[in-house]
Amino acid sequence: MSLRAIGSLADWISADQSERLDADGKEHLRLLIQGVRRMDALIDGVLQYSRVGRTRENVVDLDVNEIVKE
Predict the structure, then answer these.
(1) How distant, in Å, are the alpha carbons of 8, 40, 42, 47, 48 from that of 54?
(2) Is 35 exposed, middle or buried (0-12, 13-18, 19+ CB in 10 A)?
(3) With contact defined as beta carbons under 8 Å apart, do 29 and 14 qualify?
(4) Is residue 36 within 8 Å of residue 13, measured between CB atoms?
(5) pTM over 0.70
(6) What digits encode the pLDDT tens for the residues 1-60?
(7) 4: Cβ–Cβ under 8 A, 6 or more apart, which residues?
């Protein structure tokens, strides 16, 4: 099962089954959803970092004073 599938299932349980959960169950589910989101952000960050240096960016001169005025 993928991380996104786990997150989707946890979101579904939270939305549709919350009335059946006690306070501890709701807290555990909240922690699960929070952990899935943090792990997803971590994976995205690692993927972005892995791409550094692989792509060529065009260098453009900018007038910082004009940007600040905007």
Answers:
(1) 32, 22, 20, 12, 10
(2) middle
(3) yes
(4) no
(5) no
(6) 899 999 999 999 999 998 999 999 999 999 999 999 999 999 999 999 998 878 777 888
(7) 40
